[in-house]
Amino acid sequence: MPLDRRIQSLFGIDLPILQAPMAGAQVSAMTIAVSEAGGLGALPGAQLTAETMRAELSLIRQRTAKPINLNFFCHTPPAPDAAREQRWRERLGPYYRELGIDPAAPIPSANRAPFDASFAAIVEEFRPEVVSFHFGLPEAALLTRVKATGAKVISSATTADEARWLEDHGADAIIAQGVEAGGHRGIFLTEDVGNQPGLFALLPQVVDAVDVPVIAAGGIADARGIVAAFALGASAVQIGTAYLFTPEATITPMHREALRQAKDDGTALTNLFTGRPARGLVNRLMREAGPLSELAPAFPTAGGALAPLKAKAEAAGSGDFSSLWSGQAAALGREMGAGDLTRTLWSETLERLRMA
User: Distance between CA atoms of 283 and 294, rounded to whole angstroms?
Assistant: First the structure.
């Protein structure tokens, strides 16, 4: 099967393997390891301050000259909704009392900053080879600043219509994100997640819908998934959950153990932790309050009221109130370094292609 090398040429990478940016689950160590191995390492910016991002990027540039992907969310912050926040706090009240937390205590604000002029300035300063976005694309003026640095722009599409929109608005490549994928859905043209397609239905339709190269994401954790994605027209794959098994992942011990015990039917889409649909391992909160609830405040504010519960439970060794992000293929994960995983995935893919 001849391989489409457009992504390798576009990004200047050796292997058509992208590490998914995973906010809260990794920092620069994973980025460096994957890029040094020949793939495209990513640094997620959604939970980083400008100062922290600069520090991480400085470290990356010191340790690798290979291309990297700098990722941002581009959501619109919601208007304050005190009534909805109060209803959410009342729903969580029994858990507060159970864990000995004052339900009326002030709650921290959720930390997921959208792409803005200050982040555009960081792109201009560090000039990452690829800049990726989740939830569509930023406003035209900001996107123009990003493209002026020479960065290639990519974003996630969960439907063929979203893929067309991204191409029409300047994306250089598109990530086809199947419903199997862990973490936040990239959905942005609708709020309905009930009819989101799986990757193997989505991918060939996106490939047919656009002229730019397409990156497959969702449920890919080994060479079998990579070869299948190539057969359906992908130019590259983006892998997230498999990298959570690496020592470079900064997840909690509870999250790591839950991944080790994961099964194919052990995840669900939930909006409880942030206010937007995201796939994670089912835990107590998801079973009892969701997994999807109209009470959860708009993204990203839902996480504020959960923060005291998460902190108290995690201190006791429990992930009952934590966002245990994971895709549906977690059971295929292997514990090895991020660089070794990247090289192993590609060597096994080449072997399968030779056997085909």
Answer: 19
As a whole number of angstroms, the distance between CA 249 and CA 21 comes to: 11
Residue whose token pair is 């690829």:
130
Parallel/antiparallel/unpaired status of strands 278-281 and 183-184: antiparallel
**What are the helix (H) ranges across the chain?**
6-11, 28-36, 50-63, 82-98, 117-126, 140-148, 160-168, 199-209, 223-231, 253-260, 284-289, 302-315, 338-355
pLDDT in tens, 222-272: 999 999 999 999 999 999 999 999 999 999 999 999 999 999 999 999 999
Torsional class of 175: left (φ above 0), alpha (ψ -120 to 50), beta (otherwise): beta
Q: Side by side, which strands form the sheet with 267-270? A: 183-184, 278-281, 267-270
DSSP label at residue 3: -
The strand order across the sheet containing 173-177 reads 17-19, 236-239, 214-217, 173-177, 152-157, 130-134, 68-73, 41-44
For 71, the 3-state DSSP assignment is strand
Report the alpha-carbon distance of residue 262 to residue 282 in Å, rounded: 10
On the question of pLDDT at 101 being above 90, the answer is: yes
> Judging by DSSP bridges, how do beta strands 130-134 and 152-157 pair with one another?
parallel
pLDDT digit string (tens) for 32-54? 999 999 999 999 999 999 999 99
Q: Could you report the per-residue pLDDT of 129-184, keeping only the tens digit for each?
A: 999 999 999 999 999 999 999 999 999 999 999 999 999 999 999 999 999 999 99
CA angle 134, 253, 31 (to 5 degrees): 40
How many residues make up the chain in this entry?
356
Write down the pLDDT at residue 80.
86
Helices 302-315 and 82-98, interaxial angle, to 10°?
10
- The type of residue at 347 is S
Nearest by Cα to 71 from 26, 140, 23: 23
Number of H helices, E strands in the chain: 13, 11
